[in-house]
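so my prof wants the structure for this chain in the tokens format not the other one, which i didnt know existed until like an hour ago. anyway here's the sequence
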Amino acid sequence: MTLPGIFDRLRLPVVGAPMFLVSSPELVITQCTAGIVGSFPALNAREAEGAPVELEHWLERITQALAAHDRDHPDRPAAPYAVNLIVHRSNARLERDVEILCRWRVPIWITSLGARPEVFEAARASGALVLHDVTTDTFARKAIAKGADGLIAVAAGAGGHAGAQSPFALVSEIRAWFDGPLLLSGAISTGRALLAAQAAGADLGYIGSPFIATEEAAAPEPYKRMIVESGAEDIVTSALFTGVSGNYLRPSIARAGMDPDALPADATQMDFGAGSAKPKAWKEVWGAGQGIGAVRAVRPAAALVDELARDYAQARAALAATLARWPV
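here's what i got, hopefully its the right format
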């Protein structure tokens, strides 16, 4: 299947993953103007009771900035942006946020933690492409049956609410029956890994953790430094903090006063309601994927995209040379 035309503006086959409390309007704008899809979770636009609707302000800012970029640089228009919706029943903002995304004609919707036909229908009615993240083939089949346009295969090694399956196994099972847009998430931090994701059967890579250590990210500076200083061995998988299995930085767990090697099992339930919050001791338990070993400095997001592009081009050339030695 040919990819939808919405991806024609991309410089690289990459979607910047939406990261809770990390993805900011500044990061999204920079990602899009650098040539990849930028995204943010709708819930990052935090709102105090009775305050103006912050999500509206974020969408206005992003829309205006990308339009200005296109006017100034008609030869290299910005990539589209995406907004992530948590479709869990505890998200009391969901219905309102869906209405806002429709009104602003957000081009790409990313849905997580629940596949709901009414959300997919709203996206389609507004002209948006809707991608749903999944961790197993069973969830993938359910999402497509309920109306999703494309899938994000969240494999082992991904940051945030990661799956447990190998990317090769997960992509292979989905590709056996699905020929629509398929993204892969799971330790993709280099152009080589991006090319490997495509070789495995994905159309695009879904990259999050490396963008934590960028100047535009809303992450606190200690979090960014910890990303730079850590590697795959520093990632701990636990369902303790949100009720869903996720990957977290070992040093941040230790700083919160817990033993990373002796964490309790799932001790909480998912709650994305307005009043939900981590216990005080957990507020600086930070998520990340296993690909952070490739991150060596905090830098502008555009510089990271440039490096990914160079590495991707070099990887393609190297692969062509390797394949020439192994004719079929």
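also thought this was worth mentioning. The chain has ten helices and ten strands.
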